[in-house]
Amino acid sequence: MPNRNEQRRARGELSRVLVIDDEPDIRELIDLTLSRMGLAAHCVGSVAEARQCLAEHSYQLCLTDMRLPDGEGLEIVRHVAETVGEMPVAVITAFGSAENAVAALKAGAFDYLSKPVGLEQLRALVKSALKLPVDAEGQGTTESLSGDSAAIEQVRGLIEKLARSQAPIYISGESGSGKELAARLIHARSARANGAFVPVNCGAIPENLMESEFFGYRKGAFTGADSDREGFFQAAAGGTLFLDEIADLPLPMQVKLLRAIQEKKARKVGSTQEEPVDVRIISATHRNLRECVEKGQFRQDLYYRLNVIELKMPPLRERPEDLAALVLTILTKLGSHATLAESALRALERYPFPGNVRELENILERATALCAENVIEAEDLQLSPEESPDDLVGRGSETLDDYLNRLEKAAILEALQKAGNNRTAAARLLGVTFRSLRYRLERLGIE
Q: How many angstroms separate the Cα of 283 from the Cα of each of 121, 241, 247, 416?
C-alpha cells in the first residue's frame, strides 16, 4: 500500500518542507534545490516563525539550523515530537560539530546535515525522509520477535520508534539473544527498507584486509587488485550497514570508521577522492562496550557516535513466559510437525539457556531428529542435569558450539551402534535423511 507521500504525489499535490535558517543564502540554496526536486519549500528564519507555521500548516519534512536568533533547533525537534509526532525533522549543524549532531539525534531528529550543505547529501536525505512510513499499516511487522513478555513488548515498541529515525543504533545483549534480528526489523520498518541490509562480522575479517573490505579499492591499489571493487559501505548504499561484534575492530580501523560516519564519506583504497556514502549504521556486540572504552580497547569518540540510541536485547532466562511461543515459532521455521510434551516444556523452563534463543533453536533441531512419533519428550532435549539454574558446573570452558557438537556426535554414535554401523538404518533411527547423516558425519569427523 502506498504511504501518504506517495498518495499525495499521485493526486498531483506537492510535498511541503519547512526550512528554518537565519541565513538567507542557505534558505535560498535549499529552496532552489527542493524546487528542482518538485517540492514546495516554506522558508523562515526563527523559532517563533517556525512555531507559527507548524500551528497553521502541515508539512511532510522539516529542515532546521541548530543555531537560530531566538533559540536552538533542538527546540523545534522537541516541539515537533510533542505536537506533530510523525513528521521527520533534520537538523543542520556547523562543520565539525559532532556533539550537536548527536544531541539532535538523541532528541529525536531524523538525520543531520553539516555546513557547508552538500547538495547531493541534501537530496539523499530528503528522498529518504519522504519515503518514511507515517503509519504502521502495510509497512512491515515485528511479529518475528516471538513472545508477549513485558521485556519483549518493550523491545518491539522501541524498534517501532527507532525505525523512524536515521540515528546510529547500538544493540547490546548476550550472544544468541537476537541482536541481528532486531537490526533487520529496524531496517525493514524504516525508510531504507528497499535498500540493502548488509551484515558484517567485524571479528571475522583479517586486520590487513579491513580497510579494503569496508571501503572498497581501486584497480592496482595493491597486488591482486585486478579491478575496482565495492566495499561494505558501497554495498549498503541507501540501506543499512549492520556491524556485528563491533568491539573486535582494531583501533586503527576505528579511526577510519569514525571519519566515515562523521563525514558521511569514504575513500577507497588506492583512491585520492572521498565519495559520499549514504548508509545507516547499526552496531552490536555481546561485550560491554563501555568497559572496552575504559580499558582503552575502544575509542571513546566512536563509542559516543555509535551509541546514540541503545537497544538492549533481554536474555532468554529473563523472559521464560515467552518459551512456549518461541518453541512454536522455531518448530515452524524448521518445518517440523513435532509437538512438545508437558515434561519437555517444564525442563526448558528450568534451563538457564546460556546461549539464549540460538541455543534453543539448536536444542529443538536436535530434539526433532531424536524424538519418536513427533512428540518431543524431556529426554529428547538432552539437557544435562548439571546445567540447571542451581548448578551451572559441567561444561567448563567448552564453547556452546563444541558442547552441542559433542552431544550430536554422541547421539549419532549411539544410533550407529544400534544399527550395526549401517548408516541407512542409523539415519532412520535418528529421523534424518541419509544425505543429512552423511553431511553430519563429515562435519563431526566421524569415520
A: 22, 8, 9, 44
Give φ, ψ of 132 to 5 degrees. -65, 125
Cβ neighbors of 320 (< 8 A, separation 6 or more) are 349
Cell of 423: 548408516
Give buried/exposed letters for 210-230 (b at 16+ CB in 10 A, else e). bbbbbbbbbeebeeeeeeebe
Nearest partner of 266 among 300, 305, 232, judged by Cα:
232
Average pLDDT over residues 382-405: 56
The pLDDT tens digits for 335-360 are 888 889 999 989 998 898 888 998 99
**Per-residue pLDDT averaged across 143-158, rounded?**
86
Specify the length of the chain in residues: 447
**Planar angle of CA 89, 94, 100, nearest 5 degrees:** 60
Domains and CATH numbers, the chain: 4-130 (3.40.50.2300), 152-312 (3.40.50.300), 317-444 (1.10.8.60)
Helix (H, G, I), strand (E, B) or coil at 193: coil
